[in-house]
Model the fold of this input.
Amino acid sequence: MTISSPRGFDRRSFLRSSAFAALGASAAVPLLGACAPQSSSKNASGGKSDPIKVGVISPLSGAWTVYGKAHIAGFKLAVDEINAAGGTLGRKWEIVQADSQTQPQVVTEQANRLIREENVAFLAGTFSSAERNAAGPVVTAADKLLLYPTFYEGQSQKYYPGVCNPNIFMFGPEPSEQVWPHMDYIVKKHGGKFFMVGSDYVWPRETNRLTKQKLTELGGKVVGEVYIPFNTPQYGSVLSQIKKSGADVIFLSLTGSDTVNFRRQLAAAGMKKDFIVWTVDDEEAATSGIGPEATAGDYVSFDYFWSIDTPNNAAFRKKVRAASGNVLMDTVGVAMYNAAHMAAKAIELAGDVSTDGIREKLGGMTFDKAPQGSITMRAEDHQAVLPSYLVKVRPNWTGTDDMFEVVHKVASVTPSAAACTDLPLKAK
Amino acid sequence: MTQVISVALDAISTSLVLALVAMGLAVVFGLVRVINMGHGAMLALGAYITWTLAQHGLPFFVSVIVSALLVGVIGLLFEVVLIRHFYDKQFETLLITWAFYLVATQLIKVFWGTDLHSVANPIRGTFTIGGAVIGRYVAVVSLVSLLLFASAGWVMYRTSVGIRVRAMIQNREMAMMLGVRASAMYRAIFALGAMLAGLAGGLISPMFSVEPDMGTLWLVRSFFVVTVGGLGSLVGGTLIGSALMGGMTTLVSLVAQQVFAQTVVFALAVIALRFRPAGILGKKAA
Done:
């Protein structure tokens, strides 16, 4: 899930954050020079027994708090496992946690703080596209890596340095992985007339553009496309538009409380029997918030669900239960988990903790222990090759265990190539 | 024809739900001139208390009434402890009520956590009017909203309490000299406003997402409703304000994108305020 970046916003926050980074860089030079003797021992690549410090930026407060729990819990779980096994290169990991407050400008500040003051070896996290785009210039300027966990709109050069950035790795699915593999199934089963409802920013618009492209290939068509400003409580008018559109499927990319409000009102208007709902946003936490009545029979697609039945996931579920009680683990938490383990492996292979070393070894790495199945980090564009699941919400579910039933799955989806100008991505 | 009825029903129910949500704010803002930034948190409290009671097996409507009363009590305490010292200082009350919003929202997070909650729809199903389908529960909430405004109108214009309240709005000193107990009345009105917010929060909880920040969704819209409709014009002003903010969005989005519809409506609201600074039905503040 990705939030809040109408295009102007991206550009502005980019300008602001790059100015910030430049300022920070120029201020940091004399500062570092002055305290060089003391700081050398605290350096990221540090001594042989110093801990490896990792900066994690999660949405722990603000509008997206609901997704923050799994986000940080996934990473922590992996770090606990890594440390229990003796650490990496004999060094334990230490998480330095930061709260994004769901605000891009806070991400810029925190990323700078983690890198300059805490001397972290690399960063993991940020949540929305806007947050990732805010971190992009910072990691580029400092030449640190960012491991990004969220499902997002895919990479396209115009959003550099938030994407198409050799310093960023994408562990979450993009539309050709999250949506495309299931379109044939949905269209054959329910028809090809789609009504698209999304939040008004880059992720829904890009996702819908790509979905439309595939839908046309399959002989379907879009009979309505509506974008909703953030924090819209009432949906009466959208519902009447859908009613008269003759759609078969409502394709949803609304986020946060908007998706909850929309789906509850759709159900209350008695429209669920006439339309199929397919959402690409509502993982376990959001579906819990909407309740069984308004979600029954709807489709959701992601690379991971808590209820998927694989040996890896069975083991993972046991660990989550033991470690963090009742956290609702989801695609984002799992991506954070995978990111930590894969980074640990990359450090082992490289033999030292360096940006170049991790980048080189992470590219092309396959991780067999991922909860969703075997995943691979594509070296060329830093996009994870992931499984993809389409689930149907069971009627009268009582919790995440019996919430979703897998109806269609693809064990490994090769994503479309990123629309970046310089592939493969490599250090400048 | 069905289409027209359907749009009309949408516009009316959207407006009435919005009016219900804004009513507590209108009461406090219009009658005692306190800009209650805490209104959103009071809505959220109403929804959370309703959710909790319903979880414990209380019937939905009983839960709503209990939560309205509890939020009313919270409002009363808030008035007694803080607000009453600041009635003449509008900027201070703005800050204090905003602080209330922040503290209450954080407390909600502490007590209830940040997970989204849902309240089951107590009256499921739909019915048909002239071929147009409407959800039963939405219809009930719209009716409750209408009833509340009708009784507010009756109290304001047909009872001695109403006369005293109106006297206070027009000329506070004079009303006090004539024997109106201003402090007791202010207290009662503030508590009533909080209670109405709690009631609205409880009633809308089956239709909307129950989360700590849910109030922010409504605060700006409610303010527009109250200022556009007219300060001090509790019944007519709030209903007209809601019709403009809610109903117009429905109508404009028939022919344009939602983003555009909402922009047009906010622009209209600003234009309305340019020519009628005290609101469409507002008279010059006394």
Remarks:
- The two ends of chain A are 29 Å apart (CA to CA).
- The interface with chain B takes residues 63, 65-66, 68-69, 200, 226-229, 231-234, 236-241, 243-244, 257, 260-261, 264-265, 267-270, 285-286, 288-291, 293-294, 328 of chain A (CB under 8 Å).
- The first helix of chain A runs from residue 7 to 34.
- Chain A has a mean pLDDT of 87.
